């Protein structure tokens, strides 16, 4: 039976007496019709094109307040130009909701890449701005809005920009995200909207180090920082490292096998609200996981590809006999899996 005390304490609601489950849902049906005109200004360069179009969405929702019908009318456009000499790659696109449920929402994205040379590689910069209505789960018409407040009316605005450089020696880059009016759950069911601008800065680097002819070390590191009082929680450092024995053997065998280790520094990870399916910020529990360790064996023989992965080797525990019970946690009260063996194959037949 559903634990009424838990639902009363966490969600201020009561499951029906005699029921062994608690069920909440919004049901949506969306019909989307799009008309787009596409043109290629340079007939000798298929990498350059211009498109423009309109989209009409008809939306039906079965909600707490009954069945409701919505619509959206949106315009969109895109320009792409990858020059014939392969040195420049430019992309600009955007969409704007003229009227309807998401009236005033928009998204713009622009990026430019330049191929320098074989030694220096590529340089890439980007900019993105999204202005969007909070997800409908925050609306008072949603079955998931237990607080039944009037809804969050301010639009979320996210500005992201960054750059990266990719070359044979190292791949490095950074991203910066400025988030205004972030909508979130402050606890298991109360909704909130941030009144301050949240700044999330990320810097990352990736390097392949050749140790011997066949042994290689792949290192990926991300450092990130945000305001400690913000509702967004991230670890300061995340790293993924692979030690791999790899190469081409017996002419057709492409092999990569070794160990993979992933780790992030302790941080005040989110709580999880299972009814809402949402993560919620908290400041009373610090997540301190061991590194995730996996062994892998990947190979390809012509068109046959297969992999085997033994994951979560770090959960091995000898306290009460041998077992994989020293689990890491994804959130407070939510342990991740113990030992897991995954495998897969792909075989292509070409006549």
Give your account of this protein's structure.
The protein has 351 residues and is an all-beta fold. The chain has a domain at 1-194. The chain contains one helix and 23 strands. The protein has one helix spanning 4-11, and strands at residues 27-39, 48-63, 66-82, 88-100, 106-117, 121-132, 156-166, 171-180, 183-185, 191-193, 198-210, 215-226, 237-249, 253-264, 271-273, 278-280, 292-301, 304-311, 316-317, 323-324, 329-331, 334-335, 340-347. It has a 15-stranded antiparallel β-sheet with strand order 1-2-3-4-5-6-7-8-11-12-13-14-17-18-23, with no helix packed on it. Strands 9-10 form a two-stranded antiparallel ribbon. It is globular.
Give unreliable regions as ranges.
none
Structural class: mainly beta
**Major sheet: arrangement of strands:** 1-2-3-4-5-6-7-8-11-12-13-14-17-18-23
Largest sheet: 15 strands, antiparallel
Distance between the termini: 58 Å
Task: Report the count of strand segments.
Answer: 23
Q: List SSEs in N-to-C order.
A: HEEEEEEEEEEEEEEEEEEEEEEE
Please name the defining characteristics of this protein.
351 residues; two-stranded antiparallel ribbon; 2% helix; mainly beta
Quick recap:
The chain is mainly beta. Helices cover 2% and strands 57% of the residues.
What topology emerges from the helices and strands here?
Layout: H1 4-11, E1 27-39, E2 48-63, E3 66-82, E4 88-100, E5 106-117, E6 121-132, E7 156-166, E8 171-180, E9 183-185, E10 191-193, E11 198-210, E12 215-226, E13 237-249, E14 253-264, E15 271-273, E16 278-280, E17 292-301, E18 304-311, E19 316-317, E20 323-324, E21 329-331, E22 334-335, E23 340-347
